[in-house]
Amino acid sequence: METGSGMTGIMGGSGETERGRSPSGVSPSGSASGGPAPDPEVRAKPARRRFSARYKLRILEEADHCQKPGELGALLRGEGLYSSHLNFWRKQRTQGILAGLKPSKRGRKPIAKNPLSEKVAQLERENHRLRDRLDKAETIIDVQKKVAALLASPEPENKD
User: Fold this and answer.
1) Contact (Cβ atoms closer than 8 angstroms) between residue 100 and residue 92
2) CB of 54 within 8 A of CB of 31?
3) Rounded CA gap, 23 and 75, in Å?
4) CA gap 74, 33 in Å, rounded
5) How many CB atoms lie within 10 A of CB 89?
6) CA 112 – CA 55 distance, rounded (Å)
7) What is the pTM of this model?
8) Which of 21, 39, 45, 105 is deepest in the core (most CB within 10 A)?
């Protein structure tokens, strides 16, 4: 006897777990907690939070003034931050307030271009072009030598 879930034999034949719920967390009646069914719509990805240098400095100063147990946690919960934010911002502050706290672009950093690379590429192209000309000139000279040798050689005389 199969039920709609197709899980016979695995969970006692009825497709439900010991607590009366199916593996998906939804009871056979249609919802997990008796409330409305969850919204199936996929939500857009939330925007990444960005913090200004002024905000970072203000939070770091407030965090530095926290002395009582739990005071720092309350500050972080109130601002919706994590302790890793503070650790990262403190590192930035020790590296230099202006350099470390100004916003930086994410992603791969551009590779510094060697100023001589364009000149090297130009010279390599010129070198290749001149080698081709040299090969052609050598071929022409070889042909001219052979032609001159043919024209200058005396014809064998017939002695009869």
Assistant:
1) yes
2) no
3) 39
4) 32
5) 21
6) 32
7) 0.38
8) 21
How many angstroms separate the most distant Cα atoms in the chain? 130
C-alpha distances (whole Å) from 6 to each of 9, 31, 32 are 9, 19, 19
User: Concatenated DSSP letters for 102-159?
Assistant: S----SPPPPPPPTTHHHHHHHHHHHHHHHHHHHHHHHHHHHHHHHHHHHHSPPPPP-
Side chain identity, residue 64: D
Helix (H) or strand (E) holding 88: helix 83-95
**Structural tokens at position 11:** 């969970």
Contact, 67 vs 73, CB < 8 A?
A: no
CB neighbours of residue 108 within 10 Å: 6
What are the tokens at 63?
A: 């965090």
Report pLDDT digits (tens) over 67-107: 899 999 999 999 999 999 999 888 888 877 655 556 667 78
> Are 28 and 16 within 8 A, CB to CB?
yes
Where does residue 66 fall: left (phi above 0), alpha (psi -120 to 50 degrees), or beta otherwise?
beta
Question: For residues 35 and 41, is the Cβ–Cβ distance under 8 A?
Answer: no
Domain residue limits, the chain: 53-101, 115-150
Calpha distance 20→36 (Å, rounded):
18
Beta-carbon count within 10 A of 131 CB: 10
Tokens 């969970």 map to which residue?
11
